[in-house]
Amino acid sequence: MDLVHDKAFLNNGAPKMFVKPRERLLRLGLRYRASQSSLASNSRCQSVHQIRDNCNRFLFCSHMASDRNSASGTGTGTAGEEKTVKVPSKDSRRKHEKNEDLSDEELALKQQLDLYVEMVQDPDPGLQKVALESMRQEIQTSTSSMTSVPKPLKFLRPHYETLKSYYATMLDSDLKKHLADILSVLALTMSAEGERESLKYRLLGSEGDIGSWGHEYVRNLAGECAEEYAKRQSGEETSILDLMEVVIDIVVFHIKHNAETEVVDLLMEVEYIDLLIDHMDNTNFKRTCLYLTSASRYLPDPDNVLILDVAYMIYLKFEEYPNALQIALFIDNIQEVSQIFIDCDDMLQKKQFSYIVARHGMHFELDDEMASEDDDRFALQDIVNNAKLSEGYLTLAREIEVMEPKSPEDIYKAHLLDGRASAGASVDSARQNLAATFVNAFVNAGFGRDKLMTVPSDSSSGSSGNWLFKNKDDGKASAAASLGMILLWDVDSGLAQIDKYFHSNDNHVIAGALLGVGIVNCGIKNDFDPALALLGNYTDKEDSSIRIGAIMGLGIAYAGSQNEQLYDKLSRILNDAKAPLDVIAFTAISLGLICVGSCDHDAAQAIIFALMDRNAAELQEPLFRFLPLGLGLLYLGKQESVEATTEISKTFNEKIRKYCDMTLLSCAFAGTGDVLVVQKLLGHCAQHLLRGEAHQGPAVLGIAMVAMAEELGLEMGIRSLEHLLQYGEQNIRRAVPLALGLLCISNPKVNVMDTLSRLSHDADSEVAMAAVISLGLIGAGTNNARIAGMLRNLSSYYYEDASLLFCVRISQGLVHLGKGLLTLNPYHSDRFLLSPTALAGLITMLHACLNMKAIILGKYHFVLYFLVLAMQPRMLMTVDENLKPLSVPVRVGQAVDVVGQAGRPKTITGFQTHSTPVLLAAGERAELATEKYIPLSPFLEGFIVLTENPEYREDH
User: Is the pTM of the predicted complex or chain greater than 0.70?
Assistant: First the structure.
């Protein structure tokens, strides 16, 4: 029957069976069309498209018929019947108005979809198939790129429940599966919250291409998979095989469309992250691993380690060994570090690995398996032992032209102030000379020359001996030890110059020399162990100051080494009931530093026994708090490993119990960013106790120690600490500036700088002192002009207060640390890795500052030298294949977070181009500005080995 015949058929009057409402007319007409077509082509030979064309032709004819009837004004009844005028109801009027809002094209689509819904419910399978295929094509065409709710989904909304009801009555068949597919897509906009109907019908439907329904459908399905997995895990149903089939389909689709971040999110939700390894290729593994390592910071233990293990495996799969090494260092797995050295065959890459391990401060011994040639192994071990650090640092200083020594007066710049400042020197000359000693040590750290300690004895400015004896008693110890700071990392020259002080008749000078030996050897390992040989014999001397100098020197020299010989020596001192409290305190700290983060059971037991053996009077001593700190350092960053020791701490005397609990908790979760721990610590700080409790100080520091892990937590930590300033008790307010100093160490944030500047004028002198010291910490090694100006003004403001002036001088020395070449930041490798020894040194010094008057301003001011553990050059030094300095152009700019961004986004912004070596400030990142060389490390910090690019061609 052709189109002309159709028109004639409708115009000349249809049989009475066709005089029905319009929907019935269309449905019966289509059935007639389908049956006629079936007869003509034997039902199986005709394509779906032909049937669909016929349907559309009949739809057009029906439009013509209805238009004709309305135009002629004739009714559809038989002749002679009385005409009935129907008044439209409100619903029909609304429907009519709604349809008027649609364009002709939309109206046609709506009517067509209404027709398909009717056809789906028809008993004829052929008609059902036509309708389902047509509906599928309409939906797939519209959902491939979804910017708003597609028209087919919008028009099918009213029919969702109808189709669901009809689906429930259908017998199992391919048609039922096709309808399930369509219902699955309709559920995208129609399903009730939490019903997960999209997934339900997907599991019941056909196993077709999941991506053909569009990205939004796949994303929605991924979300429902995660919900369903969580429900099944918590309920009785444990089988997830059907669910995982859908998950794998989603993973394949997302990987194909560069949506690796969504794949990681889904696989983390369904706890099947290992699946990722099989789907990685050269084009997507770097983006995926970057997202994995970033996401790990927001996951609890042990989930974070599982995520990092997957990233480690992916990096190994594609032989990205430097990245794999950084993950192995992050999770503190020495077996994985060793495996990387074994797996990699490139000697140059192994040299780069050695530089990374050395910067991290890990104690690492190479064996024959890691480097078979003796010469190669010795060369690598030298790098790991930091033997080249002093040489590289001095090369940097020469390039930047800051080799000329500076005196404390060059730092104070008293000439810029009014006449009041000059009076400060005569108030307490011994105290000011002591301050000058520290300033001189900090400013000239590592340069080997200064104007106080290393000047020739016949110089007109006076000899080093003259300066030494311008200090009183304990001040002499700090002055002698400052020589170790000036000769930092230069072991041979340092030991030769310090040796003369061992022959002194003054015990304080000998104590300082012993400490100086430890400082010179800080971070440097030598096969001959000169520090142990020189200091070991002095730990059992009768004089307390000599013993403390030797013990503290050993702690600094062997921090992180887990040296068993030292453990035995220090354990004996801890078990000595006759040993003075200060000796015991520094022994506990040194033992904690040597075994930092090791969870060593024997070391913990030794400190616990020492804690239990002390009488009630000693528990009140400020130095006694070093014992819980030494215990905490054993578990630094090890999270749940501390639980057994925490239980034991509940048996301690109540005067020290809470302090011990807070110290253990804050140390164990340091650098983890654990929000629950921060909340717990804030809970302790929120208590308004009648008398100031000492345990609230470590709780405040703990907030900073935990929150410093990543930028978001850091900002939240700063806000929380500002609340504590407003509402906290006095003992809490005294700790807040120190916590702010730790959060922004060597990173002078303007808001923190302003807060500390305000607190430096606080009515409470201890709050003011803590704020002044923290100004030095946040500006450490930055030469920040604003902080330097603040401190100059403070030196004028506090010219009559010797204690506060001393703190101001210390901070001035810290701001100009190493003439601006050093940093105290324990984070490195693009803020990914945290050096445990560096953090341990900072924590120890800050705990001492919790009782400033008794320790820093008392006779134990040399605890400031614990900062040497965190001192590192903030440089980028590029070297060639022979490890000789190689100057190349680099771009240095503000680091940009590119995690999860599409394409190849720029990693730095606002950059400037320099020639190496260059200095890197906090938050800065460098990248090579030439293609002539290839760096062997993904993060351009510290020492970077460059190889020539074989594909590089000079432009002529």
Answer: yes
